[in-house]
Specification:
Length: 239
Amino acid sequence: MADSNTETANTWSLLWFRSRDDMTPFINDTAVRIRAGIMLAIPIFMAFTLWDIVFGSRWIVTGEVIKDTFELDFDNRILYMVEAVRRTYDYTVQTWLLFYALFEMLAGMSVRTAYLSPTIWLSTLLARRARPVWKPLAPKRFAWTIGASMISVCLVFFHPEKFAAAVNFIFQSQVLPTTEQYLPRWLPLVMVWVCLGFMWMETVLGFCLGCEVHALLVKLGIFQDECEACNNLDFGQPR
């Protein structure tokens, strides 16, 4: 019983980290995969939202009467007269979800801030009975940086006027327009699906593409050799 209580105490004091004495932090990849599965709900929701924005109807029919104009368009389709309004979107829920996802990406990058993440606590709880698989934090940090960048682009897409106003204020010039959407409509949709694919591979296959890119950059000498595992595309054997 005492050993069990000690193990539980160590789990909560270290969370998914191997040791506080590691010069290069190592985290439990089992918990990381569980966390990716939890966070997967956000890009799924955002993918459906952006699909509706890009490919959904831009008009809402408000009237109950649809009148035939007895005219045809160039494709010989019948033209009707209706009462309709331009569709508008409220991105409040999406914005808060994206800010939370951004917080999660940033919180996981540091040993100190990791304790602020609810999903890290939850994933640690769910992984406590599974055999830990230790992998370096540095490649994961690089992968989460990519994720944070994608989230930031989506936030700009939802609030282009606010971002443009901030940029124009910093440069004291009209760098970006404040009255129109300057990002391509397809860009955030593609990025969300890419993010969804990355997280699915992490959760289901245990394959971290961002980590592999990080390891490749270490091989090329673009990043410094932080640890032996960071310089190994296969990350070696679980420790």
